[in-house]
Every structure is written in structure tokens, then in C-alpha cells.
Amino acid sequence: MAMTxxxxxxxxxxxxxxxxxxxxxxxNKNGSQVVRGTAKTNAKGAVLIKDASMALGTFxxxxxxxxxxxxRYKDLTDTPVSMSGTAIDFGVQKIEVAxxxxxxxxxxxxxxxxxxxxxxxxxxxxxxxxxxxxxxxxETAAKASISVLLDQxxxxxxxxxxxxxxxxxxxxxxxxxxxxxxxSSSSNALQIKNLSSENAxxxxxxxxxxxxxxxxKQAVEAKFSTQIAAKxxxxxxxxxxxxxxxxxxxxxxSMPDLLSRLSDNLEEANTRLKKNNNEFKLNDVSxxxxxxxxxxxxGLSFIKRDELEKVDANVLSEISxxxxxxxxxxxxxxxxxxxxxxxGYTERLAHRKLREAGLKIEFEYESVIDxxxxxxxxxxxxxxxxxAHAQVDPGIRIWVTIGKRTLIEAG
Length: 411
Hints:
- Among the domains are: 3-117, Immunoglobulin-like; 336-411, 2-Layer Sandwich (Trypsin Inhibitor V, Chain A), CATH 3.30.10.20.
- The protein contains five helices and 17 strands.
- The chain has helices at 97-107, 111-117, 119-246, 255-276, 347-356; strands at 3-10, 21-27, 33-40, 46-51, 63-69, 72-77, 82-83, 87-94, 252-253, 285-293, 300-301, 317-323, 337-338, 360-371, 381-385, 391-392, 397-408.
- The protein has a four-stranded mixed beta sheet with strand order 4-1-8-7, with no helix packed on it.
- Strand 7 and strand 8 form a beta hairpin.
- The relative contact order is 0.06.
């Protein structure tokens, strides 16, 4: 978009100055002044300079007008009176009398003649000087404000350039990683091809197996749709809890805690199945778990899903757990129940275990000392009364003591 710069040049008496060369200058990125255009004043002293490549941004650019005096250009003004998106107007600009006298001297007119003729004009000049001084002060303040704004924009530009340099560095790192991945892709091509062939074979086998399973499933669902829905809902809940444990970020789980959770969940599933329909109940259940030994050899650490491919299968420990529900226990007519052993349980698991045994629970807390390198007792059952396996009447209150941490360093 083109820009235009206009002004009116007059002498100190307000008379237009014609045929005077005027040029417009702007600063580039380096701070140097660059000529944007040149034109002559007309008979009315007006000048219009066209700039085909300058456009206003979010703030006004620095533009200065100069007039030609003999063979040299001198500053006229750098303060516009108005501006728009396509034009900057510097208004009426007057050249001081000393400059006019110099111009007269260059034409050969005696200075004495000028002095006689301009006695009254000097008085006007004094008034104009005061006015000009005030205007200079105003323009100086405006210039200072523009300089501050320019400094702010410069700092913002520097910050943006630094951010771009950081992005360039990150982009180089990403490109390097992509190059590495591309170089390794060729070595994986053969493995992918073999795996694809194996997958195709397995897909065929799975398709046949799926068809068989679907047929059997449809037959069973047609007969036991309600019971199967209840069983699937319970299995989904168990899978969700197992998934939650598996996705824990390397958290250690003690073996008693793991066994108690699985036992509680399977017992609860068995109880719900028997309530829904006596035809269904859990028989022997076998579970295999692969995990890493916990820190210092205590408990187990489950692997996160996104780390499974990074772990060598040979370093995983495999644990086989067999569960046989006691479908004949707690039959109607029993007069007493055995107190479950909840030692080492969390408060939540202990509450569930004792409640399922038909007992009431009362919790109390005592301070325990955790020693580095040993399993923590914090938040775990450290004592119970009556003792585990004692025969008690149903509904009796069991006192359970939960440990609260006090940490000391070993040695």
C-alpha cells in the first residue's frame, strides 16, 4: 500500500514558499535514515511526496521532512499533525528568518535592505519564536514518547527473535531424531515383513476361533443372557481394578496386599453370582502375574503400559496364584465365625474383609517407626483384637490398630 507525506511551506509572514525541494526520510532496521521520496513545493507552498512501499503498522513509523537550502538539506520537522493508513500530514511549516536572510544573501539582495524592511517583522518573529519554542517542547515530548514506544517494540522484537532461535534449535533436534528413525526403519523392514506374515496366519486362525466362540456365545447368551450380563459386569469391574494396579507408575505392592485384594474381589464376585442365580459360582481360579521385584526385594512393581516394550521379558518374575472359593462356608446355622487375619492390610481392605465376615470394626491409630530399607507400616494394620483365626460370635466388634508414620534413618 502506498503512503503519501504532505506539508505546506511558508515564510515567517505566512507567505508560501514555491519551488523548494522537500524530501522525506525514514529509519530502517539498522537505525539508518533512508530517503523515501522527494518533491517540490507548488505556488501555494504545498508539497506531496509519494512512497510506494511504506505502510503503517500497529504504530507510526519515524518520518522526517527536510528542505533544501543551497546544496544541502536541512531538517524541517518530524512531527505530523495527523495521519491515517495511507497519509501523514505535517501541516504548515515555517522557515526561520535567519534561513530566509541566507537565501537572500545567496541571491545578492543587501542585508541592510532586508533589516529596514523587516523592523516590524522582527516583533512578529519574537512572538513566533515563543510559539515555536512551545511547539518544540511539545514535539520533543511527543518524540520522547515515540522513542519509548520504539524501544518497547525493539525489546519485544528481540524477545521474539530469541524465541524463534529456540524453536529452530528444537526443530533441529526433531529433525535429528527423524533421521535416526529413518535409518533404523530399513533394518526393521524385514522384521515387519515376517511379523506381517505371522499376523496374517494368526488372523486366519483367530477368525475361525472367533466364529466358533461367537457361535457358542450366542447359544449361551440365548439361554443365560441375564446371568452372563451380571457376570460380564463383575469381570469388567475386576479387570478395571487390575488395570489400575498395572498402570500405577512403578508403585510397589506387597504380596499380602496383592493377595488380599484379589481374594476380596473374587469373593465378592462369587457372592454376587450366587445372589443372581444359584446355577453360577466360581470354581478354581488360576492367575499368572508378571512383574518386577520391588525396591530392596520387597513386594512387586508393575510395569506401565507404555514401558512394556522397553522391558526385557527375562527379567520379569512370574507368579502363579490359585484361588479356590469356600462355597460351603458360613452356612446357615453356624454359631461362630473365625476372625480373618488382616495384618498388613490397608484400612480399606481390612474394613472390607471384616465386614464380609459379619463382624463390626473399630479403628484406632498408633505411631510406628519406618526404617529405611524395610517395608513401611504406615497406613497398615499392625495389631487386631481378638487375634486372627479366633472363633467369635457374628457381629462382635473387632479392634484394629493402624500405624502412623515416624521416619528415622537406619544406622
